[in-house]
């Protein structure tokens, strides 16, 4: 069960990062009362990351994506 919870948290964290990037949302969106209530209705067990933690996740996603894209661009 713990493994499922960890995998689910990672899945939801990644979806949150994608939403923030695609919709140009501020990292503080995770502190908005309406957003917290909405997420709580979708999955009451999900604990939103802090704004700082979300920022770090976005930075990590940027670095990993950049690492994958640079070789592709160099081949052009």
Would you mind describing this structure in some detail?
There is one protein chain. This protein has one domain (2-74). Helices cover 72% and strands 0% of the residues. The chain is built from 3 helices and no strands. The chain has helices spanning 2-22, 33-42, 51-74. The mean pLDDT is 95.
Structural class: mainly alpha
Helix content: over 70%
Query: What is the tally of beta strands?
Result: 0
**Taking all residues together, what is the mean pLDDT?**
95
**Run of helices and strands:** HHH
Which percent range describes the beta-strand content? under 5%
Our count of domains comes out at: 1
Low-confidence blocks of residues? none
The first-to-last residue Cα distance is 46 Å
How are the elements arranged and paired?
Layout: H1 2-22, H2 33-42, H3 51-74
Helix pairs in contact: 1-3
